[in-house]
Amino acid sequence: MRGSGAYAGKYAAAVAGYRVGPDYIEAHRVFVAVGADEHGGRVLGFYSLVLAPPELDLLFVADEAQGRGIGRLLVAHMQSEARAAGIDRLKVVSHLPAADFYHRVGAVRTGTAFANPPAVPWDRPEFEFRIPSG
To answer: Where is average pLDDT lowest: 19-23, 25-29, 73-77?
Structure first.
């Protein structure tokens, strides 16, 4: 996550102290995309689904794996997991460089999460996934 090009430069502060470790994984539903090809078992991406209140907390795809449909697969999996949990709407606060991705995969812009300095000194777009039943 901290090595992502999306969090380089001015965006580095947003993930500087962030850690996805055992405590985070124990508290949230975290799913991982693992390479089965030339990447042989490497983590290519992951997401975290928070059930209450329903939110996509994190979604990352490794820089070298972007453009291969992994993000779309993770979103489809997230929607399936949300549906199975009885969730019909799911919020995501987007990192600015990821906003176009969320729009392309069907999320609807619902507002703005305002800056929270010093960690996040910029406003971020808020989206919602509407999860169709069955």
So the answer is: 19-23
The torsion region of residue 98 among left (phi > 0), alpha (psi -120 to 50) and beta comes to alpha
Query: What span, in angstroms and rounded, lies between the C-alpha atoms of 46 and 33?
Result: 6
User: Residue 112: exposed, middle, or buried by beta-carbon count in 10 A (0-12, 13-18, 19+)?
Assistant: exposed
CA angle 47, 77, 40 (to 5 degrees): 70
pLDDT, tens only, 40-60: 678 889 999 999 999 998 899
User: What pLDDT does residue 117 have?
Assistant: 85
Domains of the chain: 5-130 (3.40.630.30)
CA–CA gap between residue 26 and residue 31 (Å, rounded): 12
Tokens of 11: 């965006």
| Nearest residue to 131 via CA among 71, 21, 56 | 56
Which value, to the nearest 10 degrees, does the dihedral of the CA atoms of residues 52, 88, 61, 34 take? Answer: 90
